[in-house]
Amino acid sequence: xxxxxxxxxxxxxxxxxxxxxxxxxxxVGAVISLQPPTQTMLDVADRIKIWALAAAIGGTIDPxxxxxxxxxxxxxxxxxxxxxxxxxxxxxxxxxSELVKWVCGGKE
Length: 108
Known about the structure:
0% strand; transmembrane helix; Spore_YtrH; membrane; Sporulation protein
């Protein structure tokens, strides 16, 4: 399997796992603090998406620098790869959030 595809799949599942894991542990915390776990899980899943994206790609500034330097230098291939990594991580975070909504029965 190519290095690009391997990293894209890894980014997807890291972001997916962060959202799912954060929502589940947040639900446990809600039960312990006597709050409604369903609403807490839905809130956490929505709020943690951007952080899952940032964690999956390894930070927020470096990927943007790669895109900027390569586009300005006329080298589009690395910039496009970086954008596809971002898209893959976003899809993982979004799918994790949608799964939490589906499991919790959220209509949001």
